[in-house]
Amino acid sequence: xxxxxxxxxxxIRIIAGAVILPSVVLNTxxxxxxxxxxxxxxxxxxxxxxxxxxxxxxPLYGLFKKKVPAKAKTVARKPVAVKxxxxxxxxxxxxxxxxxxxxxxxxxxxxxxxx
Length: 115
Prior knowledge:
The protein is an all-alpha fold. The protein is 39% helix and 0% strand.
C-alpha cells in the first residue's frame, strides 16, 4: 500500500490512539464512563488510529480522494555521490612573544699566507 499520510498526521494519530486506548480500557474520567457499545467503539477507534498511524496509510483518505502530501509519497531516491575532502595542513600560530634574533653566522676566514 502507498503511504498517503504526512509525518505530522501520523504522529497525531499515534499520540491520540495511545491516549484514548488506555483511558477506555481503564475507564478513566477521560472516557466519561463508557459502557456497552460506546466502550467497544472507543476501543476500536483508538486501535484504528494506532494501526493507521503506524502503517502511514488511511483507507478513508482513499474514499474521500484526499491529495497525498508530496513528502509522504514513497519515491525511490538516487544514490548521491559523496565528495571526499582533503584537509589542508594547519599553519602554526605565531606566538605573541617577540622572536629571538639569531646570531649572525661566523665567516670562516682563510688562513693567512706566509711570505
